[in-house]
Amino acid sequence: MKAVDRFLQQWRIGKALPFIRSGDRLLDVGCYDRTLIDRALPRVASAVGMDALVEPASNDRVELLRGHFPEDSRFEDACFDCIVLLAVLEHVDDPMTLAGECERILAPGGRVIVTVPHPLVDGILDVLMFLRVIDGMSTEEHHGFDVAKTASIFEAARLPVLHEKRFQLGLNRLFVFEKPGASSRNHVGG
């Protein structure tokens, strides 16, 4: 990862972190190098990262799984309090299935935190990669996802929008969805 890639990654993580609550059981889909997990670890109860490129590993609080979500999801119902998908939706063939799986494995009162870039970002990334300013992160897998459909996809899966905000000069959006129902624990933050 080049410095600009890392800067953009940290910016997305910084937008997501305030919505991860103390004591959450966290799933980071597309965890790549587990940077978000490492930054959230002081506040979460446990974390699972899933990515096609991650080296599988496990300890008492963190498990890293190689795979694709939701295709390789083998999680129990309601087993996570927070699911994070940073720059993931534009890589997914079937976002409706992904949203449905998030709803299934999310505990009542749990949150799904999503960042998704505008399709115009692909052209900008192509130029930056040509200039060797960034490495880019699997941009060949982007499907030109329509950001405007994000809320309706998750709302169809019974995950209403709690928060939405544009960032990165309006070219990226943060969405926070929350599953109805009381949480089993008190949470702080977000």
What string gives the helices and strands in order? HEHEEEEHEHHEE
Mean pLDDT equals 86
Number of domains: 1
Which structural category do the helix and sheet elements fall into?
A: alpha/beta
What best-fitting shape do the alpha-carbon axes yield? Answer: globular
Number of helices: 5
β content, as a range? 25-35%
In short:
By secondary structure, the chain is α/β, with parallel strands linked by helices. It has helices at residues 3-16, 35-40, 95-105, 120-130, 150-156; strands at residues 25-29, 46-51, 57-58, 62-66, 80-86, 106-117, 161-167, 172-178. Strand 7 and strand 8 form a beta hairpin.
3D structure, described in words:
This protein is an alpha/beta fold and 190 residues long. The chain has one domain: Rossmann fold (3-Layer(aba) Sandwich). The protein is built from 5 helices and 8 strands; from the N terminus they run αβαββββαβααββ. Strands 3-4-2-1-5-6-8-7 form an 8-stranded mixed sheet, with helices on both faces. The longest helix is centred in the first third of the chain and has 14 residues. It is globular, with a radius of gyration of 16 Å. The C terminus is likely disordered.
